[in-house]
Amino acid sequence: MNLTILLIFLVIGATSGWLAGRYMKAGGFGIPANILLGIAGGVIGGYLFRLLVFAAGGLLGSMVTAGAGAVGLLYLVQLYKKPKEASM
């Protein structure tokens, strides 16, 4: 993997994380956390798509894969995020 491919991967993951955060209303995590979750979600999405034998080629396929992974990961994180305790 050369530097150009790595940078493209990071930009796609970051963009997908930001968009997934907006879509999932996960603004409570903040933009940096959503971007990092998007990058991780892109990795997870790519792995799952390959396991399920879905072909996602090109830039658009990479964006869909990263977006699906980011939305799924943000959803799981939101499920396990501890609710803030109500103070009296």
Fold and architecture overview:
This protein has 88 residues and is mainly α. The chain is 74% helix and 0% strand. It is globular and about 40 Å long. The termini are far apart.
Descriptors:
3 helices; mainly alpha; 74% helix; single chain; 88 residues; 0% strand; globular
Task: Please give the structural blueprint.
Elements: H1 3-23, H2 31-51, H3 58-80
Helix pairs in contact: 1-2, 1-3, 2-3
Could you report the average pLDDT, rounded to the nearest whole number? Answer: 76
**Class derived from helix and strand content:** mainly alpha
Q: Compute the number of helices.
A: 3
* Main β sheet profile: none
Query: Which term fits the overall shape?
Result: globular
Helix content: over 70%
Rg calc? 14 Å
Estimate the strand proportion. under 5%
